[in-house]
Write a structure and sequence with these properties.
By secondary structure, the chain is an all-beta fold. It has 2 domains: 107 residues, Jelly Rolls (Sandwich); 79 residues, Jelly Rolls, CATH 2.60.120. Helices cover 0% and strands 62% of the residues. The strands form 3 sheets. Strands 1, 12, 13, 14, 15, 16, 17 and 18 form an 8-stranded antiparallel beta sheet that branches. The chain has a 6-stranded antiparallel beta sheet with strand order 2-3-4-11-6-9, with no helix packed on it. A 4-stranded antiparallel beta sheet has the order 5-10-7-8, with no helix packed on it. A hairpin with a 5-residue loop joins β7 and β8. The two termini are 20 Å apart.
């Protein structure tokens, strides 16, 4: 098992027409988002314009959440709906997706037919500890601290994950991971596997 503590200096940030996108991790290592040949990618984007259109990604399944603000989405001209902080929404990258709202979002992209995954929010109250078992078959797990801070304990190794930092685990060997929030924490959890 490989444990990697990622800090903002380790991320890759690029500009787009409506703000900035920060890539936390991409698989395989060294893959380039623009080539559209990656298996999965986790990123967070700041949306600084009130109205924008998502980049078409026809080969990818997408999951999105909002960390700050709100986002109203419309897929393929359908009924609009609003994502509130830490809601998770799944959709296809081939959808014609229109967005309203200034916010910070969090994204997981999965190549259809080659990768599977999931994204959820962990809400930890002050002093709360939670033990997480690793589901078999998932090669990578990423814990992103969106608010507060938390202590990750795996096989006796402890890491303090501050706001904006991540813990990336590759090929977990079955031992559970414990997360403890000294004050409180909001953690985005993503798990990915090849198919």
């Amino acid at each position: 098992m490989e444990l990697i503590h990622l800090r903002p200096a380790d991320y890759v940030t690029t500009q787009w027409s409506g703000g900035a996108t920060t890539q936390l991790t991409i698989a395989p290592e060294g893959a380039v988002y623009a080539d559209r040949a990656f298996l999965w990618r986790i990123s967070s984007a700041t949306v600084t314009v009130k109205e924008s259109d998502f980049t078409p990604l026809p080969d990818y399944h997408r999951l999105i959440s909002v960390l700050q603000g709100e986002m109203t989405l419309t897929h393929n001209g359908g009924e609009p709906f609003t994502l509130h902080p830490y809601d998770v929404h799944a959709f296809e990258g081939s959808d014609d997706t229109h967005s309203l709202g200034i916010c910070t979002d969090f994204n997981l992209m999965l190549r259809r037919g080659q990768a599977e995954g999931a994204m959820e929010t962990l809400h930890l109250a002050a002093g709360e500890s939670r033990t997480l078992d690793f589901l078999p078959g998932f090669q990578e797990w990423l814990f992103y601290c969106a608010e507060g801070c938390c202590i990750a304990d795996c096989k006796g190794e402890q890491l303090a994950i501050q706001k904006g930092e991540s813990l990336l685990l590759r090929d977990p060997d079955g031992d559970p991971l414990a997360l403890t929030a000294p004050s409180f924490a909001r953690v985005m959890l993503c798990r990915m596997r090849r198919v």
